[in-house]
TrEMBL record:
<feature type="domain" description="Sigma-54 factor interaction">
    <location>
        <begin position="153"/>
        <end position="382"/>
    </location>
</feature>
<keyword id="KW-0805">Transcription regulation</keyword>
<dbReference type="InterPro" id="IPR002078">
    <property type="entry name" value="Sigma_54_int"/>
</dbReference>
<keyword id="KW-0804">Transcription</keyword>
<keyword id="KW-0238">DNA-binding</keyword>
<dbReference type="InterPro" id="IPR025944">
    <property type="entry name" value="Sigma_54_int_dom_CS"/>
</dbReference>
<dbReference type="GO" id="GO:0000160">
    <property type="term" value="P:phosphorelay signal transduction system"/>
</dbReference>
<dbReference type="Pfam" id="PF25601">
    <property type="entry name" value="AAA_lid_14"/>
</dbReference>
<keyword id="KW-0067">ATP-binding</keyword>
<protein>
    <submittedName>
        <fullName>Transcriptional regulator</fullName>
    </submittedName>
</protein>
<dbReference type="Pfam" id="PF00072">
    <property type="entry name" value="Response_reg"/>
</dbReference>
<dbReference type="Pfam" id="PF00158">
    <property type="entry name" value="Sigma54_activat"/>
</dbReference>
<dbReference type="InterPro" id="IPR009057">
    <property type="entry name" value="Homeodomain-like_sf"/>
</dbReference>
<dbReference type="InterPro" id="IPR003593">
    <property type="entry name" value="AAA+_ATPase"/>
</dbReference>
<dbReference type="Pfam" id="PF02954">
    <property type="entry name" value="HTH_8"/>
</dbReference>
<dbReference type="InterPro" id="IPR002197">
    <property type="entry name" value="HTH_Fis"/>
</dbReference>
<dbReference type="GO" id="GO:0043565">
    <property type="term" value="F:sequence-specific DNA binding"/>
</dbReference>
Length: 500
């Protein structure tokens, strides 16, 4: 629709003849024309209709043109205001123009061609003002919809706004979600946010890392087992599927799962039913699935690491997390968030980053993404005395050569600055800083009490697993080894016991 056709004009003059001739002259123009014989009548019309341009005579009985337009300026500031006046009456008109109450004037006696030209200019101004107001309003709407924190995510980049929106939409639905993105970008955080945004939030979110558990034990980890199902299965045990009943099951690194087990997972996703390892009994649960991988899913399908039918069952909603270097200024916001967090954890005082350190954070490539940034800030807090984290501390903890750091600071990032090809590791890892204090030396045993180191290890592991109610992942975390190490050892003991 042509906006000019919607333009409304109001002429105010105490002489009906002038109003009639103006109306007649503009009959074929694309304007809707209103007329009024006094300021009071004009204001009443302005109350009833949205008027774009008002043209008023100056000399009128009761309310003068100047008074009338001053009231219009106050009550209808978006209306363009013009005066119709003789050349001899300019003094107070100039004041009114200077005060912004009147936009322009038309000369009396008037030439109709001049009136049309001036009106056209006034209409154009009106349209520009309307366009500016519309842009301002939509900018305001956009600004107020921007989130800099979302569940446990920090960052207000446009790329992350799209992720937040997708999570908001996906969360309350029952649809399965497939999350992709490079390592350390927050895929687990996204799964957590989806669960919290869902109607299942009061039920468990059970996370299984398919890369951390050997394939032969994964089935039992997910579906559980019955006593005697395999060597080491000393009791009946529920798996993640049962624990997640009513809630969400998050299968991280799904591309690492054995293909045969993927077939069983497909059946589980389709029917909600499964059998515990060693049991013929069918069990049914109500579980929503979220999966993640840092592989490109179609490549994983081509490489026969991911079943295509399973992928399409799970990929109802796809969420892709961008690499940290694709997120505008998020790296700095996240670094500040971690600086506050680790200052508190380490009971130290930090006020922020030096300007050059901020530049380094913004220009570095972050191949290990948010996890690398998190570990780096923790190590900086541990290794620095504060109160500022400087570029030197960052450079040292990132193990950057001074020339590389300088190149980044000079703006030669994005591949021109020589960078390490593998993710730089902080010199003091978080795992190292989290080591428990060594145990007190035990009483010295007699020679006959001494058993092999392997036996000592086995006893320690079995004790830990029993203390954790058969939860191998928790026991592994307390023993500070990966779950796969424990599973491998349990497998070896089983093989020895059965003579395999
Ligand atoms: N936007 C963010 N704001 C704050 N913390 C974040 C953000 N993204 C990730 N993190 C933190 O970074 C760490 C890594 O995140 P997460 O484990 O979710 O990544 P991931 O993509 O699942 O990694 P992987 O592919 O290795 O499994 C976590 O400690 C997480 O809390």
């Amino acid at each position: 629709m042509d906006p000019v056709t919607n333009i409304t004009l109001l002429f105010v003059d105490d002489e009906p003849l002038i109003l009639r001739s103006l109306k007649r002259a503009l009959k074929h123009e694309p304007y809707t024309v209103y007329t009024a014989q006094s300021g009071e009548e004009g204001l009443a019309l302005l109350e009833q209709h949205p008027i774009d341009v008002v043209v008023s005579d100056k000399m009128m009985p009761n309310m003068s043109g100047i008074e009338f337009l001053a009231q219009v300026a106050e009550r209808f500031p978006d209306t363009i205001r013009m005066m119709l006046t003789a050349f001899t009456e300019v003094e107070d008109l100039i004041d009114a123009i200077n005060q912004g109450k009147v936009w322009g004037y038309m000369q009396k006696p008037f030439e109709m061609s001049n009136i049309k030209l001036t009106l056209e200019q006034a209409v154009q101004t009106k349209m520009l003002v309307a366009e500016r107001n519309m842009l301002r309003a939509s900018l305001q709407r956009y600004r107020s919809s921007i989130k800099s924190q979302f569940y446990r995510f920090v960052g207000d980049s446009i790329a992350m706004q799209m992720v937040y929106k997708a999570i908001e939409k996906a969360g309350p639905s029952q649809a399965n979600v497939f999350i992709t993105g490079p390592s350390g970008t927050g895929k687990e955080l996204a799964a957590d946010a989806i669960h919290r945004a869902s109607t299942r939030k009061d039920k468990p979110l059970v996370c299984i890392n398919c890369a951390a558990i050997p394939s032969e034990l994964m089935e039992s980890e997910i579906f559980g087992h019955i006593k005697g199902a395999f060597s080491g299965a000393v009791t009946n045990r529920d798996g993640a599927a049962t624990q997640a009943d009513g809630g969400t099951l998050f299968l991280d690194e799904i591309g690492e799962m054995d293909m045969n087990l993927q077939a069983k997972i497909l059946r589980f996703v389709q029917s909600g039913t499964f059998q515990k390892v060693g049991s013929g009994k069918e069990e049914k649960v109500d579980v929503r699935f979220i999966c993640a991988t840092n592989r490109e899913p179609h490549q994983a399908i081509a490489d026969q690491r991911l079943r295509e039918d399973l992928f399409y069952r799970l990929n109802v909603i796809a969420i892709d997390l961008p690499a940290l270097h694709e997120r505008d200024h998020d790296a700095l916001q996240i670094a500040q968030h971690f600086l506050s967090k680790f200052s508190e954890v380490e009971n130290k005082v930090f006020v922020g980053f030096s300007p050059a350190a901020e530049q380094l954070i913004l220009r570095y490539d972050w191949p290990g993404n948010v996890r690398q940034l998190e570990n780096l800030i923790h190590s900086c807090v541990v290794m620095s005395d504060g109160p500022l984290i400087t570029e030197d501390t960052l450079q040292m903890q990132l193990k950057l050569k001074p020339s590389d750091a300088q190149a980044l600071l000079n703006g030669q990032s994005g591949g021109t600055a020589p960078m390490r090809s593998s993710p730089p590791q902080p010199s003091l890892s978080v795992q190292q800083s989290g080591y428990a204090a060594p145990q007190q030396a035990a009483e010295i045993p007699s020679e006959s009490q001494i058993c092999s180191l392997a036996e000592v290890e086995r006893i320690a592991i079995e004790k830990a697993i029993a203390a954790c109610d058969d939860n191998v992942v928790k026991a592994a975390s307390l023993l500070q080894v990966s779950p796969s190490t424990l599973y491998r050892k349990m497998q070896q003991w089983g093989d020895k016991n059965t003579g395999a």
